[in-house]
Design a protein that fits this description.
α8 links the parallel β5 and β6. This protein is of the alpha/beta class. About 35% of the residues are buried. The chain is about 50% helix and about 10% strand.
Amino acid sequence: MFDFRYHVASLTAVFLALVIGILVGVGIADRGLLDQAKKTLLEQRVAQLRTKLDQASKRSALADREQRAAELYVKQTYPVLMRNRLRNKRIAVVYIGPDHNHVQQSIDGLLTDSGAEQIRLRALKMPIDPSTVDQRLASQTDGQSYLGKGKLESLGEALGKEFVDGGDTPLWDALTGTIVEHTVGDGKEPVDGVIIARTAPPQKGGTSKFLLGLYKGLSAAGLPAVGVEATDTKPSAVSTYRRGGLSSVDDVDTQTGQLGVVLLLAGAPSGQYGLKPTAKQSLPLFPIVARPRG
C-alpha cells in the first residue's frame, strides 16, 4: 500500500536541497559567475517542485482521512464480520518459539471472536538439537528413515503432515520431550485449518531446514494454513512462510489483521496479506457463501 507521507517527506527534502541550490546560485550570480539563463532554470525547477509538493500534501491529507475512516469502519463492523465465521471449525496452532506474548493474545482473541475451536497447540523449542533428535528417532521404527542432518527438512515435513492429519502420530510421540516446549490437546482429531506464528528469532542451519519442511508439511494437505506475525516483527518471516506454501498475515496484532486470518481460515484465496511491502493487499476477499433458495 503506497503511503503519501513518505512521498511528501521525499519531495520536501528535494525541495529544500533545490532551494539551497538557488541561494548558492544567486550568490554566485552576484559575482558574475552564473548567467541569467541558468539562474532562471533553477528558479523554474524550484517552482515546479513546490507545485508537486503542494499537490502531494493535499493527497496525503486525503489519504490520512481515508485511512482513519477505514480503521473506524473496521472497528465498528469487526464484531459482526467475525461472529461465528469459524463456527464448528477445528483450528490447530503452532508456535515456533514461546506461546506467551502479544501474538498469542491476538490469536486467542480471533479464535474466540470467530467461534472457532482450538483443537490443539504446540510451542516448539528453538533451535532444535539434531543429535538429540537422532537419539530419540533411533529407538523408533518410524523414525529410522529421518536420521541425520540431511533429513531434517523431510522430518519437518512429516511432522507437519502428522499434525494436520491427526490419528496416530509416532514422530510427535517420539520427539515431544525434545522439540516441544508446551502442549495443549492431543493429536488425534483432524483439523480444518492451521495458524503458525514464529515467536523465536530467525533460525539458521539445520533448524532452518527443519522449519521449512514443517511449513511445507502443514500446507501439504490443502487446508487453510496461515503464517502470522505482528506489525513490529523484525525481521519478517513472511518470505519463509511463502516458501513453505503458507498464506500470511503480517498485522495480526490489529483488528484488520485478525479479520484477515479468519477470512483465510474460512476459505478466502490464499496469499500474502497485511501492511508490509511483502503483502499483495491488506485483506483477502470475503469467501462466497451460497444463499439458500427462496
